[in-house]
Amino acid sequence: MSGIVVQNIQRAEASVIDGLARCGVATVHEAQGRTGLLASHMRPIYAGARIAGSAVTISAPPGDNWMVHVAIEQLKEGDILVLAPTSPCEDGYFGDLLATSAIARGCRGLVIDAGVRDVRDLTEMSFPVWSKAVFAQGTVKATLGSVNVPVVCAGAAIQPGDVIIADDDGVCVVPRANAAAVLEKAQTREAAETAKRTRLAAGELGLDIYDMRGKLATMGLKYV
Amino acid sequence: MSGIVVQNIQRAEASVIDGLARCGVATVHEAQGRTGLLASHMRPIYAGARIAGSAVTISAPPGDNWMVHVAIEQLKEGDILVLAPTSPCEDGYFGDLLATSAIARGCRGLVIDAGVRDVRDLTEMSFPVWSKAVFAQGTVKATLGSVNVPVVCAGAAIQPGDVIIADDDGVCVVPRANAAAVLEKAQTREAAETAKRTRLAAGELGLDIYDMRGKLATMGLKYV
Amino acid sequence: MSGIVVQNIQRAEASVIDGLARCGVATVHEAQGRTGLLASHMRPIYAGARIAGSAVTISAPPGDNWMVHVAIEQLKEGDILVLAPTSPCEDGYFGDLLATSAIARGCRGLVIDAGVRDVRDLTEMSFPVWSKAVFAQGTVKATLGSVNVPVVCAGAAIQPGDVIIADDDGVCVVPRANAAAVLEKAQTREAAETAKRTRLAAGELGLDIYDMRGKLATMGLKYV
Amino acid sequence: MSGIVVQNIQRAEASVIDGLARCGVATVHEAQGRTGLLASHMRPIYAGARIAGSAVTISAPPGDNWMVHVAIEQLKEGDILVLAPTSPCEDGYFGDLLATSAIARGCRGLVIDAGVRDVRDLTEMSFPVWSKAVFAQGTVKATLGSVNVPVVCAGAAIQPGDVIIADDDGVCVVPRANAAAVLEKAQTREAAETAKRTRLAAGELGLDIYDMRGKLATMGLKYV
Amino acid sequence: MSGIVVQNIQRAEASVIDGLARCGVATVHEAQGRTGLLASHMRPIYAGARIAGSAVTISAPPGDNWMVHVAIEQLKEGDILVLAPTSPCEDGYFGDLLATSAIARGCRGLVIDAGVRDVRDLTEMSFPVWSKAVFAQGTVKATLGSVNVPVVCAGAAIQPGDVIIADDDGVCVVPRANAAAVLEKAQTREAAETAKRTRLAAGELGLDIYDMRGKLATMGLKYV
Amino acid sequence: MSGIVVQNIQRAEASVIDGLARCGVATVHEAQGRTGLLASHMRPIYAGARIAGSAVTISAPPGDNWMVHVAIEQLKEGDILVLAPTSPCEDGYFGDLLATSAIARGCRGLVIDAGVRDVRDLTEMSFPVWSKAVFAQGTVKATLGSVNVPVVCAGAAIQPGDVIIADDDGVCVVPRANAAAVLEKAQTREAAETAKRTRLAAGELGLDIYDMRGKLATMGLKYV
What we know:
Chain A has 224 residues and is an alpha/beta fold. The first copy, chain A, has helices at 14-23, 25-31, 66-74, 96-104, 119-124, 179-201, 206-209, 213-219, and strands at residues 4-5, 43-44, 51-60, 79-85, 109-116, 129-134, 146-147, 151-153, 156-158, 163-167, 170-174, 222-223. In chain A, the strands form 2 sheets. In chain A, strands 2, 3, 4, 5, 6, 7, 10 and 11 form an 8-stranded mixed sheet that branches. Chain A has a two-stranded antiparallel ribbon with strand order 8-9.
């Protein structure tokens, strides 16, 4: 089942992808019905990055980063590398040399359910990574995996070409076919939030804005 | 046992609370006999905050943030929200809208043995949070919990109105009735530490300052 | 087996140590055949530090920091304290007073498979620490351990006088006797990487630079 | 705050305690409003034990089991030892000698948020233990703790004399004052479950027995 | 995206399913190219069970077991319930009453990436469960999920009707369409293993049976 | 540094090894000054085994069990295989075929800081294993490791030929050169424990047997 590189994957519209980046993970996740989040152990190596891009997926054996080289050739401007090891691993599959190469091919960042290293260099290069671990442990190049096949990464099912959104809150995947619709919902949601934010900042309570008092009383909430 | 909101809780003196904030978690914890620390998995979303305030406690079902809205109405200037889920959970109960509302009611921060989201916004708003996870996972509003009841949060027993101190070292609770006495001990401790710091900086050894050599020899320590 | 302080340990050449610091953890680890890394749970309390030094080792009982005081007397300019508890522990063995004392004795940092506290102060003092936890929990001074004996710290066997390298990628140990040879290999590696970095930045692929296409085809990689 | 042994604690009625044992953890926990469970990391050393007893609590320093000896003198027939370390620890505080002594004083078992050893012997002796770890690591006797003071054990607040129920599902605490009332609710619950069990075994659905179909439809559940 | 119950799912042939059960998890997993394993935290509540069946999937909110009742109506003889919470949770969604009901509908077992309770009763009933936790924590029935939709359970993507194999080694999923082919490969593998087992039991070495010595020498293995 | 097989290792006396097995892990660990324990995550696949043997060590890449085949050739009657992966891994390196082979060469068991599979078969064969995980995940045979080199396994430094003792309490290593002396101390300890056990069983208190009351009073213990 491994040893396959899918070369021509479909991607969402660039404007949709960039719109999703601006909304951020929490809003996009809500907009698509609270689905698509990767597990909370996926943390950014530095604070402040917020990106979106098309997933170029890598299924890699534990401790073997050969397929990362293969995947980099498949990158197009605006893509994000997504690596899922075939069994749990925290080795450092990726460092500053691979980042240099990925950046040269237009890559916006890396999402890896394993380890990353050279994080000081990556930070200086502004190449954002969301990973399970920071670990200098090296890898070999001895066994095949696959590129651009469906993967489960940190608990989320990801197809190549799906839209990945990542920021300080973590990582979310939006199926490519739904991207435009999700963006629309996310933007609607943002607009609604702006109005609510103003009212809340003025001291109004969510209890009143969302009209919760009646339902709470019905459910039996008692003030003592 | 849930479905209760206690409205009139007692709080410690503002000057005592602010004094404890200045001492910080490590000193306060020592001053009250090495008790009251929350578990080390409670980490700040950004470095550098150091706060103290009165606990407004929330006992919430997993994945349900309804009671946060109820609790915000109970906040007074200088309070800190303390949320303990009724079973282990890392969902993102709290984000920038709730923070906007909490700030409008005078809240100084959030301590939550679960997840938080919108951490980039919260950082920009300088609203500090100590949490078990950063996770964009949304919550529902379907089941009652309680506000201002005793909780166990991250391994520490907390009563509403107890003083919470939080900084880069973690979170500590001081029972309200002990707050003034603990502050006094903490300040005494700080004064003593200043003197010791000067001597240590000059190269004197703790072995001599604390007169340990004799006891170490008695215990059998051998230099080879 | 405890209760021993070894006073005269051998150290590597200062120039070798400083050379290893400049190479950083990931490069040094590769240069010595992918050995010597401490576990990935050893994280720095602040980003950006990169140090190397000679290990002054501490074997300490859980929750007892007495031996830290004993170890500080053994420090020489350029040393790094390495503390391994005799059973798993995350108590805060070390804070700003001990750091003041360690700095006064020439210490460059602390590597501790347990907890540390006063991290805001330590950050301001630019005293770097790599630890398993940040935890304000205090310790006692009641039971002997040993100083400058062999330890296993975070999964790595460390002898007193071995060279410790630590940066944002974690911590690596180089046996003292190998330090010069490892440095040479690390520098060779760095030089080679510089050349590769330039080619990769220009868009050349690792597949071509490392001549991987043939072997991948032989192994059965299929492009579809 | 440590160094205290409370000698005369109150206990619940023996018949109430034994009744709670027969109900088991899951039923008792439900009967008291889903409160009082210890964390799920508290696992039995062997399957099949189901006990209840009065808590004799121990607050002990990490890696120091001195207070266990002190606590054993306080045991009365039907008691359960409950040990909470003052910071996270998995050392083996307790083995077959202490079990021999505890049994001689009428102790029914041990609940410990740390480690236990000699588990083969304990199993042969039918002395049940619920613990966080099985670990042969020995402890010292150097620092005081307390006996029969309030503790937080594995996330649950426990007072001396509270009723502890433990079985293959884990451990639950019932405040002493509530024990009789909780038993009554638990027994009512059990009776109701027996009737339901018969209907479910006959193939009736919970959807019908609990009359859920209407509410599910109202909430929008769609069958496709 | 939730609130859906798919009623007519397709299942694999009963004889294929039963054949896969006889092969066991490790063999089936190898036979399908080392894919389909659920994470190793999925442990059986008792040793010795080995089952296979068709997945009836449940996507459930954290701490809410309402959908389990809905799913039980969808069970056919030989099915296995597979529950994936929408965010990490270890609550006890399932106990002896639900097991009674599931058994009455022909269910062979439960695979749940959360908690289970009443494990003593379930063991007596010989109803096997593979779970992330044993935890008596109760759940509510307040929020919709879905039944027979695709889920990611413990890191594996599972479609309703896929074949689940579970034994003491853990849990594996085989896509329904591949089940017959995988069975054939698994049986071929088993036959081959029998022959090898005889030779290995006689003292022959894998080095010789698999003809490894040449390749090891080529790779540089040195005997000293 | 890898790719080495050391063929002639020294072993301790068979009678010493067997004596240590009879003492068990907890006693041996105490007898050698509370050192040598492997981490508590090393759990037996079935209860009741108690073995000792000489360590044949394996340093293996993550997810690659090639060196196990190499190591089996090095086994002598009474040996125990000890596998340490070069980075954290829970793959199933070992199953019933390898066990068949190992048993044919006189092997008494396996200690592995990674995964094991076919545990039902291994249990039926009475081949005991202490592991970090039970996981059916297969491995490859692509990269060299080493056999009979020093390793750190689950936090303990182990030399080839050291004595491994393993039972339900976990795993302990005794350096070969110390084995006879440790056995003597362990047997002395056992004899002393037998006498104490009788007194404790008769209801005497450890407080009196160990003469602790005076020291406790001096330390300030208060009975209230």
